[in-house]
Design goal:
229 residues; elongated
Length: 229
Amino acid sequence: MQVILLSHTPHPDELVAAAARICYRDVAASELLENEEENLSRKLIAELFRSGHTSTFEHVSFTFGIDGLSRVASHQLVRHRLASFSQQSQRYVKMTPDIEAVVVPPSIRGNDEALRVYQDCVRMAQETYGKLIALGIPKEDARFILPHGHSTRLVLTMNARELHHFFGLRLCKRAQWEIHELARLMLERCREVAPVLFEKAGPGCIFGKCGEARTCGMPYKDMEDLLRD
């Protein structure tokens, strides 16, 4: 899987702090970004976290390019409705008849016999897809035979508030392994450009308490522990 940050709101840390400042101070909008100090932004964003005043996070957004995600994971991803998605269409794009185009779960990759069975089935599905196309069947109908694990490409945009919600859910150890890895890579990209804003992004076991009805019993110690996982 490859995740790149295609675009983001310029100076996201400073802009979130500036948006919050207009709520609490008598300052003109034109002056919000003047005389900005890094330590002041850090202190103010920390206070926003503490007070739950995270609506100001909605003023900044991040757009990701994602390659090699399975359709199993993309179906989970689109449940996050406060986001924008543009996904490669199997209706219009002919799928590559390549065994590497299908994501293999670690539990299968680590078992030689299971991997053989899995890949045999993938090859059969891909061969059938190709034969149906050759018989004049439209791609939108031939795709019905393709595995759920077939990889896809998409562009995803979320604002920072929704990203915090996403990271809180999908970086939990109980999250499905592939969307957990996607969230980890997305968080790494976010922290590169907005380190203050995403300093406390992650599951409740790190920044509060676990919200799961059934906890994993193996909470992360800190963010470094999570990012190494």
